[in-house]
Amino acid sequence: MKPASRLLLAALWAAVLVGAAVWIGAHLELSGDLRRFMPTARTPAQKLLIEELGEGPGARLLLVALSGDTPATLARQSARMRTLLRDSGRFAIVANGDDGGLEAVPERLRPYRYLLSDTVDDHDLDRHLLADALDQRVQDLGSPAAELVEPLLGRDPTLETLRLAEAWQPAEAPQKRHGVWFDREGHEALMLLETHAAGFDPSGQQAALAAIRDAFERTRGAGDARLTVTGPGAFSEQIGGRTRREATLFGSLGGAGFAVMLLLAYRRWQAPLLAALPVASAGLLGLAAVAALFAADGVHGITLAFGFTLIGIAADYPIHLFSHLQPGVPPRESARLIWRTLATGVASTCLAYLTFFVSGVDGLRQLAVFTVVGLATAALTTRFLLPALLAPPRDDIAGRSSVVRMHAAIERLPRLAAPVVLGIAAVAVAVIVFVPGALWQNDLARLTPVPEDALARDVQLREALGAPDVRYLIAIQGADAESVLQRSERLRPALDALRGSHVLAGYDMAARYLPSIATQRARQARLPDRAALRTELAAALAGGPFRADAFDGFVDDVQRARAAAPLRPADLAGTPLEATVGGLLMAGDGRATALVSLSGLADPAVVAQVAQANDVQLLDLKQASESLVAEYRARVLWALALAVLLLAGGVYAMLRNVRRTARVLAPMLLATALVLAVLRGLGVELNLFHLVALMLAAGLGLDYALFFDHAGEGRAEQRRTLHAVIVCAISTLLVFALLALSQIPVLRAIGGTVALGVLFNVLLALLIARRPAAQA
C-alpha cells in the first residue's frame, strides 16, 4: 500500500474511534452501585449490609462543622445554611438544633399529633392537663417565644406540634449555644444532614455536597469560617477525586513512557501512534459491548477502571507484530506467521475471563464482557487492519547488535529442569501456607484511601453529634410492618435502661416517629369526643384570659384524630419522615425488618444479651461484610481454578503435545506461586484486587511463554521474539510499577502484583519455555 493510502486509512481508523468515543460518551450510563460487585447476600446480617450500603440512613448521613469564627457568627451562619439546605430539596433531614421551625411536622400530619405523641399515654386530655397548658401559654405570650407560640395557640394549646418537632430531632443531640448545636468546647457549630440520594448514588451525593459548599459560601460573607464535611458521601467524593487524579497522573506518565519505549525499540515515530489504534479499538468496543448488554443496569465505574487496566494486555499484540516484521516480507505475511500463537494466547485468556460468568456477581460479568470483547478486538485489528498501515522495515530486529548480544547472554543461562521447577514451587507453597499472619484481607475499611486524619475527624464529629454507630444495628424481623413496630415499642424500655446505665448514649428506631397501629388506636380511645372535650376545655378556660371560641380549631383537630385511620408507612410519602422511617423500616415480600441504630455503644456484649432476651438480634455489620467478602473470594477462587483448566485446555488444543503444553504453562503457574510467596513474605494480606491482578499477570505470562515456544530453535526468530517480549515486559512494568507507588490501596495492590508477576513470568519463560538455539 502506498504511503498516501496508509495515511488515509490511519486517519479514517482514528476518525471512527473518535466518533465512537463521542457517541459512547453521550450515551453511556455509569453506575456507582457497589452492590453490583457484591455476591448474593445469604444471612440476615449480609442482607442488611447490602441495604445499608445504599439505602440505609447511615450511608446517607453527612456531618458538618463550622469553625474559625466567633460562636455567635457561626450560629447565625448555621441558621442561614439550614434554611438554604432545606430549600435545596436534596436533604431529608437538616438538623442543627434550631427547634423554632415546624418543617419537621408538615401541615397534613398535624391533626395526627396526639396519635404520634405519647402525651395521652399517661394523661387524659382533661381540664387539669388543659388548664396547666393554658397557664403556660399565658407565660409564653409574655416571653420572647410569643412570636412562635401565637400562630399555633388556637389549634394546639398543648404545643404538641413543637413537642413532636423536638422529639424528632436526633436521639442524642449535642449542647446548644445561640440556639444551635455546638461541640463541647463551643468552638464549632454542628449540623447533621441526611441526603435523599442513596449512598451508592455518586452523582446524587456530589450534588448534595455541592449544595452544602454553595450554602456555606453564600452565608460566610467576609468572615473567617471554615467548613468541614465528613460521612460516607464525602469520603466517596474524596476517594473518587483522589483516584481520578492518581489514575490521570500515572496514566499520563505510563502513556508517555510507553511511547518513548516504542520509539527507542523500533526507531520509527509512527510506532506509538500505530500501536495505540488496536488498544483504543479494544477499549471502545469492550465498553460498547458492556453498555449494550447491561443497558438496564449501567456500566459500573469499577468495571471501567478494571477493564481499561486489563486491556493493557492488548498493548502487547502490536509490539509482537512490530518485532516480527522483516525486510522484504509484507507486514500482512508477518502477521499471518505469528497469528496462530497470538490467537492461542488471546483465546485462552478470553476463556479464562469467561469464568467470571459463573461467579454470580454482576460486576464481574461486566468485567468479563469488557475484557473478552476488548482482547478479541485488539487481536483481530492487529492481524487484519494494522498490517495495512505498515511498510516493511529497512532492518531486521534479529540483526541488531544489541539484540544479538542480549540473545547471546541469555543463551548462557541454564534451563530449569523439572525437579528444580517442582522444588521452587514447593518452597513457594510452603511460604504461602506457613508464614504466620492472616492470608486474606476481609476488612473493607482497610482498603479505603481516606486519610487517617479524615477518619479520625469523622469519629470526632460523630461523637459530638451523637450520630449512630455505623457498625452495630439491632434488627427486628416479622411478617409485616405492624408486627415489627409493636416489637420495637416493647424493646424501648430495655434500651432506655441501657441508656440510663451508660451502655448506650442513644438509639433511634422507626417507632419513635411512627407508632404502631395498635398504639395509635389506643391513643385514639383516650381522646374525648366533641362534647366531652368542650366541657373539659370550658372548665380549663374558666377565669382565664382566653375566649371559649378561640380553640375551635383544636376541638376539630382532636375529633379528626379520633376518627382518622391510623397512619401507616405509606402515608408518610412526601413528608420529611418518609426517608427517615424508610431507612429504619423495610417491608416487602411477606417480610418486614425494623432497624434500631445505636450511638455511643460502650459494651456490645451487654446489648447483645438484652437483644437476645427480647428475641431480636444485634447485628455486627463489620462481621457481616467480612463474611460477605469471604464468600465473594471463594467464588472468585473457584472461577480462577476453572480458568486455569480452560487455559491449559486452550494451549493443549493448539500445541497438541503434553510436554510442550507443560513447558508453556509452567512459567505462568510458578510465577503466580512466587508472587503469592513474596506478598506473604512481606506480610501483605491478599484481597480480591490481588486475585484479579494475578489473573492479569498470568495472561501476560502465557503470551511470553507461547511466543518463546513458537520461536522454536531458530536464532533469528528467537531474537525477534526476545526483542518483542522484552519490550512488552518493560512497557508493562513501567505502567504497573507506577501504580504500585499509588497511595490508593486498590491501585497499589494491582500495580505491585502485576509488576512482580511480569518480572517472574519473563524470567521463568526464558528459563523454562525457551528452547536452546540451533547451532550456527
UniProtKB/TrEMBL annotation:
<feature type="transmembrane region" description="Helical">
    <location>
        <begin position="720"/>
        <end position="741"/>
    </location>
</feature>
<feature type="transmembrane region" description="Helical">
    <location>
        <begin position="416"/>
        <end position="440"/>
    </location>
</feature>
<feature type="transmembrane region" description="Helical">
    <location>
        <begin position="688"/>
        <end position="708"/>
    </location>
</feature>
<feature type="transmembrane region" description="Helical">
    <location>
        <begin position="247"/>
        <end position="266"/>
    </location>
</feature>
<dbReference type="InterPro" id="IPR050545">
    <property type="entry name" value="Mycobact_MmpL"/>
</dbReference>
<feature type="transmembrane region" description="Helical">
    <location>
        <begin position="636"/>
        <end position="655"/>
    </location>
</feature>
<keyword id="KW-0472">Membrane</keyword>
<feature type="transmembrane region" description="Helical">
    <location>
        <begin position="273"/>
        <end position="296"/>
    </location>
</feature>
<feature type="domain" description="Membrane transport protein MMPL">
    <location>
        <begin position="663"/>
        <end position="766"/>
    </location>
</feature>
<feature type="domain" description="Membrane transport protein MMPL">
    <location>
        <begin position="186"/>
        <end position="401"/>
    </location>
</feature>
<keyword id="KW-0812">Transmembrane</keyword>
<dbReference type="Pfam" id="PF03176">
    <property type="entry name" value="MMPL"/>
</dbReference>
<feature type="transmembrane region" description="Helical">
    <location>
        <begin position="367"/>
        <end position="386"/>
    </location>
</feature>
<protein>
    <submittedName>
        <fullName>MMPL family transporter</fullName>
    </submittedName>
</protein>
<feature type="transmembrane region" description="Helical">
    <location>
        <begin position="337"/>
        <end position="361"/>
    </location>
</feature>
<feature type="transmembrane region" description="Helical">
    <location>
        <begin position="302"/>
        <end position="325"/>
    </location>
</feature>
<keyword id="KW-1003">Cell membrane</keyword>
<keyword id="KW-1133">Transmembrane helix</keyword>
<feature type="transmembrane region" description="Helical">
    <location>
        <begin position="747"/>
        <end position="769"/>
    </location>
</feature>
<dbReference type="InterPro" id="IPR004869">
    <property type="entry name" value="MMPL_dom"/>
</dbReference>
<feature type="transmembrane region" description="Helical">
    <location>
        <begin position="662"/>
        <end position="682"/>
    </location>
</feature>
